[in-house]
Amino acid sequence: METLKGKHIYLRALEPEDLSFLSSIENDENLWELSHTQTPYSQYILKQYLANSYQDIFEAKQLRLIISNYENKPLGMIDLFDFDFKNSRAGVGILVHQHEDRQQGYGKEALQLLIKYSFTHLNLHQLYCNISEDNDASLKLFTNQGFEKVGLKKDWVYKNKTYKNEYLLQLINS
């Protein structure tokens, strides 16, 4: 699908070959705060998840795509979650996994592709995201793509014996 192809990356469906990549992300404790995860995932559970990833967004209420370069190296993932057909909205989450792949424009290009796909193919009215107040890189990424801060959730995330605030951002399709 041309909509999901950019200049440097493309977005693709999950494949069985993504098991080790998915496992490395889902079991990285440093990333658990982003996904509100508390425990590791077994290979068995992740295999089941991959086996069921064929469900479309209307059934699963979620769409997870791999961010891949044109050498077919997976760089990260981008998600639509809490897909709400009635209210025509979905949440967005994005992760570029390796530090050396960050700040290279991959996240920006992936987000641009997903926004376009969401508004043209899924006919969504709005996208939203939740970003920790201290996550400057993600705040910059989303605000540069037109997302607006619409609220601050006080003491929303508990990590390392302290509470953190989290912003709610929205992008409304005009």
From TrEMBL:
CDD domains in alphabetical order: NAT_SF (cd04301)
Keywords per UniProt: Transferase
Pfam family, one: Acetyltransf_3
Keyword Transferase listed: yes
Chain segments annotated as coiled-coil in the UniProt record: none
A GO MF label: acyltransferase activity, transferring groups other than amino-acyl groups
Protein name (record): N-acetyltransferase
Source organism: Gelidibacter gilvus
